[in-house]
């Protein structure tokens, strides 16, 4: 998870540099990503804490059927959704933002003289 955290922090710094850190669409996307990353962390913790990745269900006449844990199936879906959300955040930065520059334009420098 540290690599993902670094990517998210870099994206937030990039958003600030491009001036979209206060954009409503970007903020909503960032909040949704925070929720999804917590869900991913919870799923990984739950899978790590279980003794086995298999679960059983009892049906008719006490027969047990063995299945894989449903979280195994959900984790890739949520990961994919989080990755697409990060891509959306990057698109917002690149399409709606403009890199802030600290350089003074030629007109401004002439006006200051």
- What integer is the average pLDDT? 84
N-to-C series of helices and strands: HHEEHH
Give helix % range: 55-70%
Beta-strand content bin: 5-15%
Largest sheet: 2 strands, antiparallel
Total DSSP E strands? 2
Count of DSSP-assigned helices: 4
Concise overview:
This protein is mainly alpha-helical and 113 residues long. It is 68% helix and 9% strand.
Q: What does this 3D model show about the protein?
A:
This protein is mainly alpha-helical and 113 residues long. It has one domain (2-112). Helix content is 68%, strand content 9%. The protein is built from four helices and two strands; from the N terminus they run H-H-E-E-H-H. It has helices spanning 2-18, 24-49, 70-96, 106-112; strands spanning 54-58, 64-68. The chain has a two-stranded antiparallel sheet with strand order 1-2. A hairpin with a 5-residue loop joins strand 1 and strand 2 (64-68). Helix 1 packs parallel to helix 3 and helix 2 (24-49) runs antiparallel to helix 3 (70-96). It is rod-shaped and about 90 Å long.
Defining traits:
single chain, 113 residues, mainly alpha, rod-shaped
Topology overview:
Elements: H1 2-18, H2 24-49, E1 54-58, E2 64-68, H3 70-96, H4 106-112
Antiparallel strand pairs: 1-2
Helix pairs in contact: 1-3, 2-3
